[in-house]
Amino acid sequence: MCGIIGIVGVEPVSGRLIETLRRLEYRGYDSAGVAGVVGGHVERRRAKGKIRELEAALAAQPLDATVGIGHTRWATHGAPSAGNAHPQTAGRVSVAHNGIIENFAALKAELQGRGRVFQSDTDTEVVAHLIDEGLAAGQEPMAALKAALDRLTGAYALAVLVEGHDDLVMGARRGSPLVVGYGEGEMFIGSDALAVGPFTKRIAYLEEGDHVAIDHGEARIFDAAGARVERPIQLVAASAALVEKGNYRHFMEKEIHDQPDACQHTLASYVDPIAGRAEAPGGFDFQAVDRLQILACGTAYYAGLIGKYLIESLAGLPVDVEVASEFRYREAAVSPDTLAVAISQSGETADTLAALRWCKERGLATAAVVNAHESSMAREAGVLWPTNAGPEICVLSTKAFTAQVSVLTALAIAAARQRGRIDEAEERRRVAILLEAPRLLAQALAVEDQVRAVSHLVARARDVLYLGRGAMFPLAMEGALKLKEVSYIHAEGYAAGEMKHGPIALIDEATPVVVVAPSDALFEKTLSNISEVMAREGPVILITDEAGAARAPPEAKLVVAPACDPLIAPLVFAVPLQLLAYQVGVFKGADVDQPRNLAKSVTVE
Ligand code: M6R
Fold it and tell me: Which domains does the chain have, with CATH numbers?
């Protein structure tokens, strides 16, 4: 999703705006722009495409400003183009915006009716016009901003420059996050802590409906009602170092390798290794609920499905899992003793957030499994169940996924004990198995060479099927999603047993089938499915463990992951699938960290 930065600085800001936009690239974008105050006037530089295009525009026409705003745009209204890139300007006002102004068409017609001329196809331009109208009517900038905000329906985080107010940047948030950074004689606003992290560690998170004015010395924050408010300043750990690639070629590669640590840090919040006990942070009584309703999108949804397998089998607690974009609009029938659990890396995904709010409004207890601990979901859910994966920069989710599955596995054990399905000894045994996950994730990374050897098979395919049984079925769907995202190859995940009910028609010698099958209780059945594929000349890549490899048909190409208990197989077997997608993406020369059309955090519908 779009990224925003605003700086009231004492030194030239162009370089820092560009540096920040690079850090925000992970959110996904297709154009970028900056604006700065130069000699009392606001000037803009904008470009379609990558930040380097914007840099070229700045090199051709430098922007010698100490106060400025910047933006990476992921197109919603209006095609990606320099003209639709932000900042959008009207009269004295320049605006950078993340979100969607839903009533922009009506506002635009109204403004045009008053003689306002529009330069772009964006929804954002109406905001600039509304503020500029207020200024023209004699309002002070913050009053004009507030009056404009009151006219808007939809979601926004805004950064605003006003010509004639050279040391001022205004901001506002509703539906999309915005933080304020407190520096030494300098102030910042940005989309997240990563945006302002290298400039200051002192950050305040704006609340829904807040708007803010920053100058050299202070931030004046007002709530939705217009009352002056203080938001607590926190010291954030989002140091620039955390978002460097280090020796890795891509963030995706780095984040795949981060997983042993991410899993360990996450489990530390859920598992007491000495007592051999699993517990939700802060304690949660799973006897008090009769059902879980998991709500999520994309990869987080697949993590939720894995959670269903684990929680139902271990704890006997019914779990429904639904993509949030469907759940929020279909008037679901939920019982009052349901716990709604949102799962999200960003904590800002619009559909998941709306589904969570829907449940809250109906009086359900809510929890959020979230990686961004200051996000909207983290703050709005009744209970925060954190993943501690650290910032995930690649648009493709990898370490956040295994961190989510780690949380759900720990919760399954805790729920099983509380609901009397396992005794303390069995809990200790399960916890010990779970604590092996970081080590086995590290061992699983060693399959890299085996994966490279089979990746060419996948790279030249047009379609790829992924098959799995049990918890390996949602993992197969996740593997297929990873491949689609990074390589643009069509891939689908199926329950292996379902193949003969349709997908088998797709099998031919040009359609590789990736089978995820540790040597568990279902392995025998999956072997039969492998035979069915091979009988139709489908090339098989079997991801299994050593015992599975010993029983595999000789024609199957093998990737041998470490043997592990079925409890943690979804974690361990995620790694080869992620590496396969990554290798294929690299092989195809794809834009691995920022695939086309994708945004890291989808804060629009
Ligand atoms: O931030 P969230 O976890 O809520 O994001 C949900 C999906 O948008 C996300 O998982 C998406 O599917 C990723 N690109 C998957 O790699």
Answer: 3-242 (3.60.20.10), 269-435 (3.40.50.10490), 443-605 (3.40.50.10490)
The CA 345 to ligand 1 mean position distance, Å, reads: 7
Q: Is 371 in the pocket of ligand 1 (CB under 6 A)?
A: no
Q: Say if residue 570 is preceded by a cis peptide, omega within 30 of 0.
A: no
How, if at all, do strands 211-214 and 202-205 pair?
A: unpaired
Interval 497-529: pLDDT, tens = 998 898 888 899 999 999 999 999 999 999 999
> 352 CB less than 6 Å from ligand 1?
yes
For residue 599, give the ligand 1 atom closest to its CA.
14
72-105 per-position pLDDT tens digit: 998 878 888 999 999 999 999 999 999 888 899 9
Give the residue, by CA position, lying nearest to ligand 1 atom 4.
344
Gap between the Cα atoms of 299 and 483, Å rounded: 12
In 3D space, the residue among 261, 259, 356, 262 whose CA is nearest the CA of residue 304 turns out to be: 356
Distance (Å) from CA 148 to ligand 1 centroid: 32
595 Cβ below 6 A of ligand 1: no
336-353 pLDDT, tens digit each:
999 999 999 999 999 999
